[in-house]
Design brief:
Blueprint: E1 2-3, E2 9-10, E3 25-28, E4 30-35, E5 41-46, E6 49-52, E7 58-63, H1 68-76, E8 78-83, H2 89-94, H3 104-107, E9 112-113, E10 122-123, E11 128-139, E12 144-155, H4 166-175, E13 178-183, E14 186-190
Antiparallel strand pairs: 1-2, 3-13, 4-5, 4-8, 6-7, 7-12, 8-11, 9-10, 11-12, 13-14
Bound molecules: flavin mononucleotide.
Length: 204
């Protein structure tokens, strides 16, 4: 639907897509850390990802089977999902370079810190970390779905908040913009939000 200047609404013309990548779509941009066969930490950005469950008990992301991330997660059955803030966009790009026999986290200009429960490290500069144990890998045509159970979560203290304090939380976001990937080749710094008003009698 398109809203015109005089306030009237008219339906946009629909075209049939014959290939992907010709529309905007927002995705969470995460850095997945795993451990390689010799124990060196590996990092890769992923955008096809989601947490699952009303209490965010599971996490799933799509991964090309040729990637080290896939092979490491399959072998060690653990991975960590790290959320970078908007200030880390250059490091996120650097993390997309695959390297053999080296600490990819350090190569990307980032710092490893131990995780609370699993062996792959957290990334210190990221603000949120979901530590996962592998539940299942579903191989699809040219990508695979990696599903894990979240076994520990940690967040930067200054970015933790209580729900229901919308004004304070909107201000917090304006001071610490988060990062979103705008598929296929843009990103956004999200620093402006409005409170979502749920319908009355809404039951989640
Ligand atoms: C912004 C961005 C998003 C990406 N998203 C995905 C993704 O969702 N799934 C995937 O398999 N690869 C994705 N990639 C590609 C890999 O993460 C990248 O090639 C990485 O170097 C693989 O490293 P690895 O072999 O160490 O796992 C993405 C790359 C970039 C730059």
């Amino acid at each position: 639907m398109i809203l015109t200047e005089n306030g009237s609404v008219h339906m946009a013309e629909k075209i049939v897509l014959d290939s992907h990548g010709r529309y905007f779509d927002v995705k969470p941009l995460i850095l997945v850390t795993t451990l390689g066969p010799t124990g060196l930490p590996n990092v890769a950005p992923k955008t096809q990802d989601m947490d699952i469950g009303r209490r965010e008990q599971y996490f799933a992301f799509a991964c090309t089977p040729q990637h080290h991330t896939y092979q490491n997660a399959k072998a060690n059955e653990e991975f960590v999902v790290n959320y970078p803030g908007a200030e880390l966009i250059e490091e996120v790009s650097a993390a997309a370079q695959a390297a053999e026999d080296s600490d990819e986290i350090a190569l990307a200009g980032l710092t490893s810190i131990p995780s609370l429960v699993v062996k792959p490290p957290r990334i210190k500069e990221c603000y949120l970390h979901l530590e996962c144990r592998l539940l299942e890998i579903r191989d699809l045509e040219d990508s695979s779905l990696i599903l894990g159970r979240i076994v520990a979560r940690s967040v930067d203290k200054e970015l933790s908040f209580e729900r229901g304090k919308s004004k304070e939380n909107i201000k917090l976001l304006s001071e610490h913009p988060i990062l979103a990937y705008v598929h296929p080749d843009h990103y956004a710094k999200i620093s402006v939000a409005e409170e979502f008003v749920f319908p009355r009698n809404y039951k989640p």
